[in-house]
Predict the 3D structure of the following.
Amino acid sequence: MNKDFISSEFQLLQDRICKEIETIDGLQLFIEDKWTREEGGGGRTRIIQNGSIIEKGGVAFSKVNGPITDLMKKQMGLDGNEFFATGVSIVLHPTNPHIPIIHMNVRYFEMDNGEYWFGGGIDLTPHYIVPEQAKEFHLGLKNICDKYNSAFYQKFKNWADDYFFIPHRNETRGIGGIFFDHLQANESISKENIFNFCIELGDTFSKLYNYQVECGKYIPATDEQIKWRNLRRGRYVEFNLVNDRGTKFGLVSGGRTESILMSLPANASWEYNYLPINDSKEIQTLDLLKKGLDWML
Amino acid sequence: MNKDFISSEFQLLQDRICKEIETIDGLQLFIEDKWTREEGGGGRTRIIQNGSIIEKGGVAFSKVNGPITDLMKKQMGLDGNEFFATGVSIVLHPTNPHIPIIHMNVRYFEMDNGEYWFGGGIDLTPHYIVPEQAKEFHLGLKNICDKYNSAFYQKFKNWADDYFFIPHRNETRGIGGIFFDHLQANESISKENIFNFCIELGDTFSKLYNYQVECGKYIPATDEQIKWRNLRRGRYVEFNLVNDRGTKFGLVSGGRTESILMSLPANASWEYNYLPINDSKEIQTLDLLKKGLDWML
């Protein structure tokens, strides 16, 4: 299981996911931007815009390599000369506020000293939280996790609660999901099975999202609900630009800005001190943006 | 010239500026939010929304004090037990894309060991750069600077070029202005005159902005120009959330989030890899988002 095999499998995963998202959307196809990087490697950024379901979304594959910079040593605590990194990243912003925003990422990192790890995650950001749908999402993730390690789901679910959190708002980005990093083979899982876990996550992505889309797509949206969607997108922008370590590292380390910021929505709003009215669906959603909730109760 | 005198003068400055902006807008008045801070001090955040000129803007005064935290020691390189900070901050987002976004800030910081400094800045972010208007803006700033120190303008103009810069876009936020920090009395300027310089900047703010408003307010905006305005607002959001040291420090140090993020526009847009057509006014603006331009030529 060498790095080139992993990256070519990730590339095929990108192909499959894009096809599935095109089927879910039913109107628009992805456009592809191929790019290369001076220091080594490149990627294929694929964007879908103004679809029947997806207003703006991206599925990016990249495979990059090069010298380990001082910034990487400092911020990632690395010790080596050359790195290799490959991964698939997805963010989809739907038009209908009754369909959640979704994000997924799987990635592999290797250094010339032989050290490697996998990382990844998937999380859901409903504009309106529906507990039954949140349960279904977490159940789907738990099912995959349990096939590989009985401790994965709870550990990675807690990790997601901590990672997808906006401290300056004291709220989670959404209903969480799973997040993991620095995952290496040990006595309880092989490298091959960590890889299989990542691929299976990727291949379940569209099924999980399709369920959410089907639940929301026929519900008409009022102007007030569109306004709320845009305010929630504002929070998504805040998380990505202020808190997301991957975004920040990508931007300061000279990553490809358009590929990194494909995660931003087509539009977002801010209103000073906005507070929804009591007992509204909006307030119910805010009340559920907390760490540590067990969605499967 | 003690700290309480400085903060009460800053508070009066806020009053004057708010009145002047209300006159410029001619429709809406500011609403005020008074807040206090557990560790000491508080502020008056004033917001204007949906005006005839200003779509969303804020003029904030604050006066806070408390123990110097480890974070402040680390990020600001401070050495002391207690701090005191007071200032006035302004950001105005106009509705008409032919009127620029404007920002101003004056602040005073003091530690219990007696060390103090002033900081501040004012910069303009036109959605469409008009060189004659940029010249007028910089000329106004130079006139104030020259009254206090013949070296101020060039030094603070360069500082603004460096500060109001978006590295991941390789573009400046706008046409710059002036920026200064850690300004202390020395052989060429007294503490009183630094203070007077800050107050004069504040008192010239509305006159400088009114000129910009008058130049743009009668120019009708097309849908394409509104779209461009929203994309430029997206860049403003990126700068404030990714690059602005004041915003970042405020958010991680537990500042009042709504007051800090009053700088964000009512809405902003992102479109993957958007590039205006050749020879358009939009491209002309992009070409001028560079450091080191002499606007007074």
Remarks:
- Chain B has one domain: 3-287.
- Strands of chain B lie at 31-36, 41-49, 54-67, 82-94, 101-111, 116-125, 165-166, 171-172, 176-183, 267-269.
- Chain B has a mean pLDDT of 96.
